[in-house]
Amino acid sequence: MKAAVWYGAKDIRIEEIATPEPGPGEVLVAVSRNGICGSDLHTYVGSDTGGASMHVPGVVLGHEFAGTVREVGEGVTDLAVGTAVAVAPMEWCGSCYSCHHAWPQMCRKLALYGGYRLPLHGGLAPFVAVSRRSCYPLPAGLGVIEAALAEPMAVAMHAVRRGPSTLGATVLVLGAGPIGLGVLQAVRAGGAQATIVSDLSPARRAAAATLGATAVVDPVSGDLRAAVRDLTRPGVDIVFDTTASSVAFNQGIALVRPRGTIVSVAGWQEQARVDMGRAMVNEIDIRYSMTYEPETDFPATLAMLAGGGFDTATMISDHIPLERLVDDGLEELLHHGDQHIKILVDPS
Ligand SMILES: [Zn+2]
Ligand SMILES: [Zn+2]
């Protein structure tokens, strides 16, 4: 089969590899779609802080995928061939402090399909072998193509769960990429009273408006402060930062109300410069969100996708074949990322 194999910075090859066979406790999934993640871009360009140094060369990339069970390995008795599944692409040790608390995303041996830390092949191939425990059957009403959004939407869902209740809250979302737009939809489903979304890209602001944001603002040419003041005089209750930008993060600190909450759900490339003085005088609560807890966030995310709480038509901007991964996927996102939301790759 043809797969997208990562060898190093700017060296991804679409090449022939053997079709995997499911080992004991594993299933073979025929991949319907695999989404391109911002972290894949860091890996592609070889950014160390983006995790490239943690990637295993010679491994198939891709961690946002869904598909259909093609074959089951020894000992798998509760998942039938032909079942459509979304995959939580995470493996963990099961015995460390975080694993004992059901927080596998913080496992000290955390590994991801797509080659993060261990040579676990990912979803940018027609077939991938994954553990049974990573597979979540799709609820009725959710297609196997749209289900490729489950992983990034689980990131958004987890970020919202890490914050305080959104019922009746005013919320500012910094950044309208896939995660920011996912957060927007999740807080609206959670009963937010008003939502303000800030992004530099006109296309992404338009998507936020389509998805029901109360106000959308260009953080440079627009007046974010005025937009917040119009809706909520003391500042918003909750800010979600998806940008990994110190400028944006400090805008969040300036615009959250006293004793409000900021949730950081961004992959930082460098150390942040945070306005600690201002955060301190307003007793702001800064929290962090790391991917998701599969057992909690995947079923909730899949139910929300099936129920239309995440608008897949707006979120999925492009479908491309595997052979075009580098030119129409990774390079396109590097140079024209503001014109796309989620690009899905069809590896079949
Ligand atoms: Zn990702
Ligand atoms: Zn562990």
TrEMBL record:
The keyword Transmembrane does not apply. InterPro entries: ADH-like_C (IPR013149), ADH-like_N (IPR013154), ADH_Zn_CS (IPR002328), ER (IPR020843), GroES-like_sf (IPR011032), NAD(P)-bd_dom_sf (IPR036291). One of its GO terms (molecular function) is zinc ion binding. Its cofactor is Zn(2+). PROSITE patterns: ADH_ZINC. Keywords: Metal-binding, Oxidoreductase, Zinc. Pfam families: ADH_N (PF08240), ADH_zinc_N (PF00107). Residues 8-345 form the Enoyl reductase (ER) domain. Belongs to the zinc-containing alcohol dehydrogenase family. This is Unannotated protein. The lineage of its organism: unclassified sequences, metagenomes, ecological metagenomes.
